[in-house]
Task: structure prediction
Amino acid sequence: MARENFNDLLWFLVVAEERSFTKAAAKIGVTQSTLSHTIKRLETRMGLRLLARTTRSVSTTEAGERLRQSLAPRIAEIETDIAALTAYRDKPSGTVRITVSDHAFESVVWPKLQPVLSEYPDIKLELSRDNGLRNIVEDGFDAGVRLGESLEKDMIAVRIGPDWRLVAVGAPTYFADRTIPRTPQDLIGHNCINMRMTTGGGLYAWEFQNHGQDVRVRVDGQLIFNSSYPMVDAAIAGYGIAYVPDNLVMHHIAARRLQLILDPWSPKFAGYYLYYPSSRQNSPAFKVIVDALRHQAGRTRV
Result:
């Protein structure tokens, strides 16, 4: 059926239900003469008289009533389906893909997003743990998580976590027969647990700061990992000194499984940010994720 023919049927249904060309024309938003012409065209096309007109009222003929009874429930069903689709449009749903480092995942992202999965069952969440610096647009991610100092340009950034420090730690058993480092340079000669950087593939040069003095030390040791978590385990086991986020080891320090060294030299980092292109702001599901992760109000364009 041509689209204009379908409109003729819809307009007929309005006239039949309103029992008035005047009321129907006002409801549809057309002139009464246009509506009358449309109904006559429909009757001519069908070869049936559908409406009985008098000067005071409009009623359906037997054929018109049968057509009304056939159309009304079908149109109502279509309207219900359209309303449901509109609700679906506004309902947070769909997949959100985020690339995130293991530390950001464990310390910030996953704890905050777990409740989202229960509250919004139609949101699908894909979290890719990767310690490298990914191009989220080229790699098909909706957003990424990075430290404030390494955010990409021309992205919207939302702070999602507090500041934190890198700290150097070792087991008391490791220091039992070794001199405890007092300066970053004292790390040279110690068995240090290294971190392999995913981006570039090089070893992380340990960065220290004290009273405005920045020091980078390339350490050496028996073990290399690409994640902070096994570094902590290895340090507890006495394999050497690890340089890791403070929130991973403070409870171990309190329990005396690890010993904090070079504390005055531990630099502070400006926390984690969720960053994404501006085009992602229109997704209800993505907005739910951003709001759940947000650490403090406000957005910062970088």
Q: What stands out?
A: The two ends are 54 Å apart (CA to CA).
